[in-house]
Design brief:
The chain is α+β, with helices and mostly antiparallel strands and 165 residues long. It contains three helices and eleven strands.
Length: 165
């Protein structure tokens, strides 16, 4: 059976339209699975930091939720997450299941009530301090659905080789 040129064009246009609608619904489905902000994975040598959610605003469809929390030092003091133990100068990597908007991620070190923004390399990595000790950080990022922060603690330990192998 031969199709006329017009019928073939209509058939092709219908297939493209249906494929586009399906791709859009897949995109929406992927975003809808995040009813709350995604948690970051702060990793070093196959280990990851425990994070504690801080303030965020997040919207799904027609509903928006904003939660305002205490500052990261107070949240960490209350929740007491275990620190991620790293070597001096280690490079940590941050990732999310739902990637944030490009160049929206900010990592801040808290020293008392002062904040020191960290320099990110490759958009999601930074070098921890060289001096041994406990350090408190906060990572914030933005998505189409909103923004969110997570606090975490690292412990820089002296360069004892056996401890990190």
């Amino acid at each position: 059976m031969k199709m006329s040129g017009i019928a073939m064009k209509m058939c092709l246009a219908s297939m493209l339209l249906l494929a586009g609608c399906q791709a859009d619904s897949i995109d929406r489905a992927a975003q809808q699975q995040f009813l709350t902000p995604p948690n970051p994975v702060i990793a070093w040598k196959e280990k990851s930091a425990m994070t504690v959610p801080t303030s965020f605003c997040w919207s799904v469809e027609d509903e928006a939720t904003c939660t305002d929390t205490a500052a990261p030092p107070e949240i960490i003091a209350e929740k007491k997450p275990s620190p991620l133990q790293v070597q001096p100068g280690a490079v940590l990597t941050i990732s999310y299941d739902l990637p944030p908007a490009e160049q929206s991620m900010v990592v801040t070190q808290w020293v008392g009530s002062s904040q020191i923004e960290q320099t990110l390399e490759n958009g999601n990595q930074w070098k921890v301090p060289e001096q041994p000790g406990w350090y408190l950080f906060d990572v914030r990022a933005q998505w189409d659905q909103g923004d969110a922060g997570h606090a975490f603690v690292i412990e820089v330990k002296s360069n004892s080789r056996s401890q990190y192998l």
